[in-house]
Design a protein that fits this description.
single chain; mainly alpha; three-stranded antiparallel sheet; 9% strand; extended
């Protein structure tokens, strides 16, 4: 004799859906406000959610863990739900969540990291770096997300820039990059992802792989061009001020 395994409910009330998905009820309401979660089926005053709602929530959680923004996820869902069901959305998840970053993390004792920033890496700076996602602390060891960015930060501090200001610029840069990435995601989901049928996922994955270098080059080239302009303007101002002071 075998024990009967209860089948999951065909439909969920709001609290039941939140429990099944492992998220707070307020998060579900927020997703509905952002158009990430379709409205429930109404029976009188009761809202009933289906297994598709639960699958959607699990996919959103997966994408968030991989670093996607809610706006980017919303764009993706909107593009793929024009005539397609949740199965197509779940199928494309693998194609669009391959990592874009090729940065190499570096792990070291906290004391070794502090030695790279003499007198600057106090507990407040560590906490700020953790909040920004730059550092991850595990006991007395820390992991910096990017060897290249760490080297760049060390160079700036050694040149005389306070670490607090380096972290402030890192925060502003991340915000700007988030906005820029959201625009790229919007372009790709509107004009690329939506043109593939559900059975064309292999071709979609290849296309996205081809787009990655172009997006990264666009950002790097654009930043270098802006630096050229800003440096030139700053030098011209310094020279003009020196000339004026000698008159």
């Amino acid at each position: 004799m075998t024990d009967d395994v209860p089948e999951p409910p065909a439909e969920y009330r709001l609290g039941e859906l939140a429990e099944a998905a492992g998220v707070p009820v307020r998060t579900l309401r927020y997703y509905q406000e952002r158009k990430l979660l379709p409205p429930p089926r109404r029976v009188g005053r009761i809202g009933l959610y289906s297994a598709e709602h639960l699958a959607r929530l699990r996919m959103i959680a997966n994408l968030l863990e991989r670093g996607h923004t809610l706006e980017g996820i919303r764009e993706l869902l909107a593009a793929w739900e024009e005539g397609r069901g949740i199965a197509a959305v779940l199928g494309v998840e693998k194609a669009v969540t391959a990592p874009w970053s090729t940065e190499t993390p570096v792990t070291m004792p906290l004391a070794e990291l502090a030695a790279l920033f003499p007198g600057e890496l106090d507990p407040g700076a560590v906490e700020r770096a953790v909040e920004l996602g730059i550092l991850r602390v595990d006991g007395d060891r820390v992991t910096h997300w990017s060897r290249r960015q760490l080297d760049a930060s060390v160079a700036l501090v050694r040149a005389g820039v306070p670490l607090a200001e380096v972290l402030e610029v890192s925060r502003d840069l991340q915000r700007a990059m988030d906005d820029l990435a959201a625009r790229f995601v919007g372009l790709i989901t509107r004009h690329v992802v939506g043109t593939f049928a559900a059975d064309g996922l292999d071709a979609l994955e290849e296309t996205l792989a081809e787009l990655r270098p172009g997006a990264q080059v666009s950002v790097e080239a654009g930043f270098a061009r802006s630096m050229d302009r800003q440096v030139r303007t700053a030098i011209e101002k310094v020279l003009a001020d020196l000339a004026e002071s000698r008159e």
